Structure formats: C-alpha cells, structure tokens
Amino acid sequence: MRTNELNRATMQFKASPLMPILFIGHGNPLNAITDNTYRKAWREVGENLPKPNAILCISAHWLTKGTYVATTDKPETIHDFYGFPKELFEQQYPSPGAPDYARLTQQEVNETQILSDPNWGLDHGAWSVLMNMFPKANIPTYQLSIDYSKPPAYHYKLAKELFSLRKKGVLIIASGNIVHNLQQANWAPNAKPYVWAIEFDLAVENHINNHNHEALINYTSWGSVAKFAHPTNDHYLPLLYTLGLRGNDENPIYFNHSFDMGSMSMRSIIFGNER
After folding, report:
1. Angle (CA) 146 125 215, round 5°
2. Residue 107: exposure state from Cβ atoms within 10 A (0-12, 13-18, ≥19)
3. 46: domain range?
4. N or C: fewer beta carbons within 10 Å in the chain?
5. What is the dihedral of CA 137, 140, 145, 151, to 10 degrees?
6. Would 57 be classed as within a structural domain?
7. How would you class 74 by CB atoms within 10 Å of its CB: exposed for 0-12, middle for 13-18, buried for 19 or more?
8. Which residues, at least 6 apart from 265, have a Cβ–Cβ distance to it below 8 Å?
9. pTM tops 0.90, yes or no
10. H or E element: which one contains 57?
C-alpha cells in the first residue's frame, strides 16, 4: 500500500467517542412490520443513539463452523423464514456494506481467525431491527457469524477482542432473545409468559446487574429452567457478545421488558449510552 493510501485508511478509522453496545430481543419476524410496542421502542432508541460510522450485527441467524465476517459491499436482504405473509418477504433493507470495517475487524482480533464471507448479506435478526432503528438504510452495515461449534466462553472471549471497534465509531448490535423456546410458543393474543420464562429472564437481569458474567456464561448449570428457556442456545449466544463488550463501569439500560408468545423474552439492553 502506498503512503497516501495508508494515510487515508488510517484516517478512515480514526478514534471516536466510545460507541454504545446493544442487545436486541427480536422475536417474531412480524414484529418488524406490524404495529407493536417493540417496533416503536426500536425507532425511539435509534433516534437517540449517536450516529455510527458503521454497524456490526451479530445475529442468532448466522450460525457457522468457524467465525466469518461479511465483506460484501452490497448486502442482500435475506428472508430466512417461511410461512409468513407476502409483505414480510417483500421487505428490503438496502444499506451499503462495510468491507473496510470487516477487514478492520479481522485485524483487531488476534486470538481467533476470522474468515471472510463475500456473499452473506443481512439476515432477519439484523434487518428486522435495523429497518426500524435506522430506516434510511444509509449506514454501512456488516455481520459477524456465530461459530456454533464453540462453547459459550469462546463467544464471550471473542467479544472482548472486538472492544476496540467501539472506539472507532462502530455500533455493535447483538440480536437474539434472553428466553427463546419456539416449541412452547403460544400464538394466542396476549399470551401470558410461562413461569420458567419469567424465572430465567429475572435471573439473567440479576446477574447482569451484579456484573456476574461468569454465571451467565455457565447458564446451563442453572438446571431445568435453562433447558426450557433455551432448548438450543443460538438465541442466547448473542447476549454473551454484548456482555464481553461491556465496560467495567457501564450499567444496563433495559427496554422492551415483556414477553412475546409466552416463551420469548423481548428484553433488550443498552450499555454505554448514559447521557
């Protein structure tokens, strides 16, 4: 790389105020387009966040063997679901990609090999939230996959290596659910949450408030309540990225503290936006 090119690249990633981090409970894909309190809260949060240079999404819906970062400059809107109304399949989120920030992400991480994926776009765990938080779709956006072959501690540790991105204007959004059991979903209107769902959600809140991340990493030791809350851990793992990115002095701001279909906690969290 020539000297002038190197200087331009360095300026592109200049230091910025520490960006906040978010964990978003996304729940039912229809939440993206129907009239509901979750969607309204996403809009309000987006309006009050500092404008990022780029957005990095870590979604429960991009599971891989190995860790990948999407390097496309025009990410496709991925409709990775079935059985929903045509209107949902017609949704597009045409944000630009962030290949330069994707490569920066690879450079910032030393203990884990992050591979490039030039084809992955934005899955519904990402775009269903972003289309409401940042409806103009004008912020470069990219995704990091979740290596589903690795234990929870791996993801928490990897997240710590991503912390430097917060200093370079990257807004990191993890998208999953603190409780997620589709097998027990109750599609009746205003379904009440299960007792085990409430118990697990409150336990997570308590450990977050007390900065007890070790307990949250080892959540499977909580017994049957953990098995009911997460028959599979794909929607829980994004939370560990948010916790790994958390600063020692950052306190949680909770929103959307309610349950969808009785078996999905929509509780969402912001760290670092206390203004």
Report:
1. 55
2. exposed
3. 17-271
4. C
5. -100
6. yes
7. exposed
8. 25, 177, 178, 179, 180, 193, 197, 200, 201, 259
9. yes
10. strand 54-59
Question: For residue 11, is it within any domain?
Answer: no
Q: Considering the domain boundaries, does residue 7 fall inside one?
A: no
Angle at 98 between CA 94 and CA 103, to 5 degrees: 155
Please name the helix (run of DSSP H) or strand (run of DSSP E) that holds residue 271, with its range, or none: strand 268-271
CB distance 58 to 172 below 8 Å:
yes
Q: Count of domains in the chain?
A: 1
Closest alpha carbon to 109 in 101, 98, 120, 117: 101
- DSSP class of 180: B
User: Given the DSSP bridges, would you call strands 170-176 and 146-147 parallel, antiparallel or unpaired?
Assistant: unpaired
Spell out the per-residue pLDDT of the chain, length 275, in tens: 343 443 444 346 667 789 999 999 998 888 889 999 999 999 999 999 999 999 999 999 999 999 999 999 999 999 987 778 898 899 999 999 999 999 999 999 999 999 999 999 999 999 999 999 999 999 999 999 999 999 999 999 999 999 999 999 999 999 999 999 999 999 888 899 999 999 999 999 999 999 999 999 999 999 999 999 999 999 999 999 999 999 999 999 999 999 999 999 999 999 996 54
What CATH number does the domain containing 145 carry? 3.40.830.10
User: Looking at beta carbons, which pairs linking 75-82 to residues 24 or more positions away fall under 8 Å?
Assistant: 75/120, 75/121, 75/122, 75/141, 75/142, 75/143, 76/121, 76/122, 77/121, 77/122, 77/127, 78/120, 78/121, 78/122, 78/123, 78/124, 78/127, 79/124, 80/123, 80/124, 81/29, 81/124
